[in-house]
């Protein structure tokens, strides 16, 4: 199996280990970030007063992915609700990419 071969290349000591159990999981539910998908994603805020989006599929103004993206988008959504209620937004700290990595 390719994974096993690669594992032994990375950690050769494991070749001597006794395998007790192995399971290959091949699911189709992993988050996807295919090229050019950015433009298609909805932003946190919508024109509908009581609808905001959060989740790892939402368009984000700073680089993040997977769980980090899910949490960050939730914070942006919470901030949007605070703003709509006339309350103070919470500061969110993130990296500030330059050059090619700029969003
Ligand atoms: C196998 C696997 C391994 C992963 N490993 C990592 C990792 O190591 N590190 C990492 O950062 N990320 C990892 N991820 C990605 C991470 O799990 C997701 O990015 C994150 O969970 C996305 O959070 P979310 O809240 O956007 O969506 P989800 O966690 O998918 O939550 C969406 C929720 O909405 C519910 N739902 C869907 N439709 C409806 C409906 N119609 N009505 C009501 N509820 C509904 C679902 O049941 C689900 O509970 C992994 C994902 C998978 C599948």
Structural features, described:
This protein is an all-alpha fold and 103 residues long. It has a domain at 42-89. The chain is 27% helix and 0% strand. It is built from 2 helices and no strands. It has helices at residues 2-10, 66-84. The chain starts with a helix and ends in a 19-residue tail after the last helix. The chain binds flavin-adenine dinucleotide. Flavin-adenine dinucleotide is lined by residues 27, 29-31, 55-56, 66-68, 70.
What is the gist of this entry?
The protein is an all-alpha fold and 103 residues long. Helix content is 27%, strand content 0%.
The coarse overall form would be: elongated
State the low-pLDDT regions, or none: none
Mean pLDDT level: 93
Q: What structural category characterises the helix and strand content?
A: mainly alpha
The bound ligands are: flavin-adenine dinucleotide
């Amino acid at each position: 199996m390719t994974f096993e071969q690669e594992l032994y290349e990375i950690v050769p000591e494991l070749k001597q280990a006794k395998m007790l159990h192995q399971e290959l999981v091949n699911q189709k539910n992993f988050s996807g970030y295919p090229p050019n998908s950015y433009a298609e994603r909805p932003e946190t805020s919508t024109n509908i007063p009581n609808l905001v989006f959060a989740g790892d599929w939402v368009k984000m103004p700073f680089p993040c992915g997977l769980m980090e993206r899910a949490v960050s988008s939730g914070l942006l959504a919470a901030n949007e609700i605070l703003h709509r209620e006339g309350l103070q937004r919470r500061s969110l700290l993130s990296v500030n990419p330059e050059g090619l990595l700029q969003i």
